[in-house]
Amino acid sequence: MHAAETATDRRRAGPLRSLGWLLGLLTLVALGAMTLSVSVGSSALSLVDVLATLSGQGSELQRTLIFELRLPRTLSAFATGGLLAVAGALMQVLLRNPLADPYVLGLSGGAATGALLAMLAGLGGVLVSGSAFAGAFLATLLVFGLAHGSGSWTPSRLLLTGVVVASGWGAIITLMLAVSPAERLPGMLYWLMGDLSYARTPWPALGLLLGVSLLLLPLGRSLNVLARGPLQAAALGVAVRPLEWSIYLIASLLTALAVTSAGSIGFVGLVVPHMLRLLLGNDQRLILPACALSGGILLVLADTLARTLIAPEQLPVGVITALLGVPTFLYLLHRSR
Amino acid sequence: MSRLDVRDLLIDVPGRSSGRALNFSLLPGQVWGVLGPNGAGKTTLLHTLAGLRAPRGGEVLLDEQPLERLNRRQIAQRLGLVFQERQDGFPATVLETALIGRHPFLPAWQMEGAADLLAAEQALARLDVAHLSARLVSTLSGGERQRVAIATVLTQAPALWLADEPTNHLDLHHQVAVLELLAAQASAGRAVFMCLHDLNLAARWCDQILLLYPDGEACWGPVASMLQPAALERLYGQRLLTSEIDGSPVFIPAR
What we know:
Chain B: GO terms for molecular function: ATP binding; ATP hydrolysis activity. The structure holds two protein chains of two kinds. In chain A, 77% of the residues lie in helices and 0% in strands. Chain A is built from 15 helices and no strands. Chain B is built from nine helices and twelve strands. Chain B has helices at residues 42-49, 72-76, 94-99, 114-126, 142-156, 172-187, 199-205, 223-226, 229-236; strands at 4-10, 22-26, 31-35, 57-62, 65-66, 79-82, 160-164, 191-195, 208-212, 218-222, 240-245, 248-253. In chain B, α4 (114-126) packs across α5. The A-B interface holds A 1, 4-5, 7-8, 11-12, 14-16, 92-93, 96, 98, 217-219, 221-222, 224-232, 234-240, 277, 281-283, 285 and B 47, 50, 52, 71-77, 80-81, 83, 87-93, 95-97, 100-101, 103-104, 106, 108-109, 111-112, 117, 133-136, 139, 156.
């Protein structure tokens, strides 16, 4: 209720201006989080050191540490979190259901199955990523193909298909873990819980995140109308079927890339959009870019904790996102009544 | 001003033979009432006229162009639809809900401006729900939601209004207020085509009537020739008592 009223007030004040403010603020927070993430680690750097190195000074060691180790990982974390949050927000609009996210719909399960298969076969590096990507797309086709079936394409049917397919992937994953040789198990488990140390270059993910965020801006109002239901949207001039297909394809692509770069990190896609809706109302033009930034911030912070809490050992970042996200989410949900 | 021409239209009601082909025109200034028992295909007809559902045969022309050759946006700029059942999507406030009526008129990159906001607020005020602006639609009563839905179409300001039981859930006063609003739209040169269940409201506010029988049979024409007790008794399978008050016929179901 409270959130809805502030959203309306903000709208009165001019949606463009509030969009600018919000994104500016979130960008600052994101930059702060990334600086923090780059400074913290096995050998701590002061803020001055970090800024100096980023601006081209600093010692050889500091440059290697920042440009080759920490910065790529931080940027990967940011991009992955942003991709997952935007994918979740899109799925939720598509299904008009706050429970939808890439996990629930079985996309991540498909990606995980692909990745684990590659690991089990003793492959590494790019092949694991490629296999995860293929798995995510196979899962997409499977869920949409089955849910589409004889024509009727209702959100509940899609959600149900996704849930069932996801549990199918779960069973396959458990089976693979059960039969894998012991020395491969830790890597596989880490991948399953999300692990950014697999991330290589952050640029494809960052590029996609930026591109999709820009692409979605002009679609934002159509998505708002679609969130009212497909018939209402069609009556108000939205070409519903093409829009739904594009959203699903975009969301799948985002998920596939995110999962490929960081393994399966749960929770971000479900919780970030939901928290933002509780705080900001449900205007997709505001929510989608805010998701891209907030999802990124959450994962950067979570990864920083994952690297440092029990250093030199690392925790799976998925554990941290859940531990941070669950209480925050429950608090917001509780307060929103 | 726009017009809708229906040519040899067979609506697609599942599991029913096609029945009579419909041929009529919805012209500026007219108020049409569609009467028929449950399941006769009133909603299907309305959705077919809006292009949301393909007909089994024939065509619907919006300003002399077949609906299927227009895109949804072009249709929505001229034709608005008040739905019978609300599809509950994501939570939205009353003002946000009314404001989406401006969607067909705004380019993709443009945010709603002051004029759009004003249109939405005036529509909400006209429907007596302005005081609920900041409330979530899901927290409203059935009648309030119905008025918000009508306010959304009023914000859209289409030349052609299709309304599926616009008086649903409304109390007596608001039933009259909504029908007065629709009549005012028609006298301003727009056209109204609505499904109704109340014969007496149809008798008072409609000037054209379409009777839709459950077997697909149909007949249409000016209100005076259509609201004949014998035809209506056959339509509903219900005996009626008829009287006349205030120049309009009044129908009461017989026990």
